[in-house]
Amino acid sequence: MHNNCDRKRYECDKCQKTFSRKNYLKQHVLIHDGLKPYTCDICNKSFVIKGYLLEHMLVHTGEKPHECGICGKLFARKGHLNGHMLIHTGEKPLVCNICGKSFKNKCQVNSHMLVHTGEKPYVCDICGKPFAYKSHLKDHLLIHTGKKPHKCTICDKAFKQKSQLNSHVLIHTGEKPYVCDVCNKSFTRNDYLKQHMSAHTGKKPHECNVCSKSFAWKSYLRSHMVVHTRKKPHECGV
Length: 238
Hints:
Helix content is about 40%, strand content about 15%. By secondary structure, the protein is α+β, with helices and mostly antiparallel strands. Among the domains are: about 10-60, Double Stranded RNA Binding Domain (2-Layer Sandwich); about 65-115, 2-Layer Sandwich (Double Stranded RNA Binding Domain). It has a two-stranded antiparallel sheet. It has a two-stranded antiparallel sheet with strand order 3-4. The protein has a two-stranded antiparallel sheet with strand order 5-6. The chain starts with a helix and ends in a 9-residue tail after the last helix. Keywords: DNA-binding, Metal-binding, Nucleus, Repeat, Transcription, Transcription regulation, Zinc, Zinc-finger.
């Protein structure tokens, strides 16, 4: 009986990674050499391994040969199908080695790590504000462009972010999915629930930087600031 050591006989002399077949080792060495001998004849993109080129060709053909056996959703790549299957199984096999939080895929882990490192690699080229996530930068750019791409199909009101649209739609449906576990009062938005919880906890996290008076709700703090600024934003139209 052969063990794993017997099966993995071919070792890369640059990184010591081992392979069961010599041709696998040859393909791997191309990574170190920087060679990409397999080129797409449609868009000229190059690949290290022929299998990667074959997968890439599905982008041009539109084929999705990998089907989910549970919901029937189709995927171009087997790796994408494997990632999708975690939705059905509920598995989160990748764990953050700092806080122990679990994730479904490596992309989620990499995004999460920015919480620990404090990195903000995505920078707005208009105002220079940095963001940890590309999606946050995209949302931010709408401030500069003024675009509101997410439109309600019921009343045509438009929003900058999809999450804002999702919250708005609850007005039409009457749903209040966020429920207080103390008094069972329900809310359309999670931030409304968080604000409500201060009534039970007594916390007042919003503090005036002029007189240090604290408030449970941010809107109460804004109203209070008028005392210091003497501004009267509400004008009688008559």
